[in-house]
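Minutes, project huddle
Topic: does the predicted pose make sense with NAY bound?
PN asked that the exact inputs be recorded in the minutes so nobody has to dig through chat later. Recorded below.
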Amino acid sequence: TNPLSGMYAALMTGLNDDGSFSPDRQHALNEYVLRQGLSGLYVGGSSGESGLLGTDELLEQQEVVALDCENTTLIAHVGAPSLRDSIKLARNAKRLGYHGLSALPPHSYPFSDAEIFAYYSELQGATDLPLIVYEVPVRTGRPIAMETLVEVLDLPNVAGLKFTSTDMFKLSMLRRRRPRATLFFGFDEIYLSGAVLGADGGIGTTYNLLGRLYMALDRAVQSGDLREAQRLQEISAIFVEGLLETGVLPGMKAAFRALGIEVGPTRAPMLMRADDGDARIAELVARPEVA
Ligand code: NAY
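Predicted holo structure (tokens), as shared on screen:
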């Protein structure tokens, strides 16, 4: 198996009611997620609201999670508007014993592929940790050219790619071109499609809540049980459909609230999009097949 392969929760962030980072709420969430038996945690990514947090808060969260989660594989997402902050986060993760790094491509301005390559090239050289790069056009506004992705994958400390795109042919081409790269698929609701085209695992928001389901889904794919894989994927898809009405992260936070685990609101300007969002999500979570 390729390095760091497996199923990871894109860990969410515990906030206080006033929107500040809450180590206590983070602990409560970590405890729940660890019980799911996933391969590991992906810390400080989009699902952790990292685009809305300050670097100091992300450094603190890295530490809180490292102390709580000693016995699992930890990947620190260190993507930040500036390379400087990314390197700071990467070195902190290394010091804390994280097993891998990942980063969104630079996207706070419309950067060129050459700038994206230069960013990853510097970042992978900043520590000796394996780096998982990221293709996520829904966040960055555009896909990265195939040739650039392959060039980045060939950098010495780059171990793989988190592929959060619906361009499935691109995923299958990447699989053939770089068999030893670890490819993670990033859309929970269609994980099955990535897995059958050769993804080595998945990283997702809804894994925080439904980790056991995604582990079972991946096992079903590995053992060739397509019927069971489809059954599990459909439960995940129905859940994500519900989340789209509230916004994915506000809805996920409402889901935890419904289960008695308070992880706070999302940070402004990210808002719950439905007035009756909490009630809707509570209903969804109460369905026997979901939680
Ligand atoms: C992260 O933290 O970087 C991620 O969670 C990436 C994975 C998520 N994709 C995005 C674009 O946020 O889990 C997915 C996504 O929330 C889910 O599939 C619902 O669409």
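Observations noted during the meeting:
- The pocket of NAY is lined by residues 10, 42, 45-47, 136, 138-139, 164, 186-189, 203-205, 240, 248 (CB under 6 Å).
- The mean pLDDT is 97.
No decisions taken; revisit at the next huddle.
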